Amino acid sequence: MPFRLIYRSHNRIPADQLKSELGAIFSVARSQNKKADITGALLIDGDWFVQTLEGEESAVRALYDHIEKDKRHERLSVIDAQDVEDRVFSRWSTARVSEDGQPDIPLLMNRDKGGASPAAGRPTTPEQDAVLDRMREAAKVG
Questions:
Q1: Considering only CA atoms, which of 115, 66, 59 is closest in space to residue 87?
Q2: In 3-state terms, what secondary structure has residue 84?
Q3: What is the C-alpha separation between 124 and 10, in angstroms, rounded?
Q4: How far apart are CA 93 and CA 53, in angstroms?
Q5: Would you indicate the residue range of the signal peptide (predicted)?
Q6: N or C: more exposed end of the chain, with fewer CB within 10 A?
Q7: What's this model's pTM, rounded to 2 decimal places?
């Protein structure tokens, strides 16, 4: 049974370094998450990150423990952590979730090709929308 953890954290990355740091985060996350069979989505809203991680519980919790020690985050809090019947982001590898009114950019894992690629034009499912809405709500609490 998959495990889902949703957390939020305050971004400590200086504005002039944000673009390059986010590129580094996505690059490392895609590679490491694939190895650990972790999928999910990341919302960046102003100075807040909200991320959903899905996978085997010990792998997800180990990743969260690593994120807690990352100096680019502060004020981390777990929004939800529970076993779920199915992953809602089973094909997403650290997708970028946009703010309200913007399209989401799911990054699909292609296990045969060994990487992730943007899934332009692919709609989200109602199950994904429910989790994405929860993520957006958590970002607004700030």
A1: 59
A2: coil
A3: 26
A4: 10
A5: none
A6: N
A7: 0.78
